[in-house]
Amino acid sequence: MNGRSVRRGRGPEPPIRTDGGRAADGHATDTGSEGSRVLVLNPVSGSADHTERIHELAADHDFAVRETSEAGDAIEFAREAADADLVAAAGGDGTIHEVVRGLYDADALDSTTIGVVPTGTGNNFAGNIGVGDVEEAFAVLETGDTRDIDCGIANGRPFVNSAIAGLTADASSETTADMKDSFGVLAYVVNTVQTAASFEGLTIDVETAADEESWHGEAAFVLIGNGRRFPVEGHTQADMEDGRFEVTIIEDRPTGKLVGEAAIRRLLGTDTSNITRLETAALSISVRDGEPGTFSLDGEMLSARELDVEAEREALSIRVGEGYEIDPEPLD
Asked: What ranges does the record list as Basic and acidic residues composition bias (predicted)?
């Protein structure tokens, strides 16, 4: 496992243990005790037809369920569940973000294992950790491996998947619930096309840790990927356990049409010539001109003139499915 920690769920064949609850390879294992379990459920995420089934499965798997009713509830519920052995987030990327934020506020990221039950529109993070649907999610909660993955911290706020600045962050903030209902995951692409015509670019300075690399100019889009990257030969998952971000910068072009074309091509996985890729453990983005920039942390909006971002290596304990890649294809 390349020296990275892995613990087993309550599967039928746990690793051979020596003493002290550790596997023979020295990594911590699940001792098999159930302990306390809490599931934080967003009942209106995605198509909102999942609530009854999740309550049934949660009861079958001994989870206490707490339903959110407004933004911020999942943060509070996760904070209150910080002493639980397992906290599951049932919702989309925004619900996962709030649960992680609540556990981060309670200083419990490394002591409480997180699980994901995908019911949102995009579910990008769930796919990257090998969780495909609700039924599979509960199987993973029981028998999946537990990995210690990196957690990004941006201006004191955690994120697990990505931090985004520029065109798609602005478009994401304008994507309504009605659009998501009508177009599903394509709602974000549709709104990006609509936003591109009026987007004026973002004049920024990007400085990486220890001045490894820097970038200065006008950008259409910046993605800081912890769990997520733009497609590289079909691979959308970044390495979540290397303590480094995969950063993609799409340069602005003279016209809104070309800005939109560049961004959409990258969203759909087609390469373009105006892309800069960086890998770093920490970076800062400074917005030089105009209004503060709009940043999206796992889909949650933050307005700032400067964003300081740091990767905390293997800071988050999370249950993953078989599709999770420990060593995804590296960037070229």
From this structure: 19-28
Instruction: Dig out the tokens for 124 from the structure.
Output: 């990008």
**Residue boundaries of the structural domains of the chain:** 6-150+315-320, 159-313
Per-residue confidence (pLDDT) for residue 330, from 0 to 100: 66
For the chain, what is the largest distance between any 2 Cα atoms, rounded to a whole number of angstroms?
65
* Residue 24 identity (one-letter amino acid): A
d(CA 159, CA 111): 17
In the chain (332 residues long), the average pLDDT of successive 10-residue segments reads 44 30 32 68 85 96 97 97 97 93 96 95 85 96 97 96 73 45 40 51 88 86 82 68 91 55 50 78 92 86 94 97 85 57
CATH of domain 6-150+315-320: 3.40.50.10330
Q: Cα(161)–Cα(145) distance, rounded to whole angstroms?
A: 19
**Where do the H-state alpha helices sit in the chain?**
51-60, 73-80, 93-105, 124-128, 134-143, 167-174, 177-183, 186-196, 256-267
Give the residues across from 235 on adjacent strands.
232
CA distance 137 to 301: 27
Beta bridge mates, 309: 154, 283
The dotted CATH code for 159-313 is 2.60.200.40
- Which CA distances in Å does 219 have to 123, 275, 300, 324? 26, 10, 21, 31
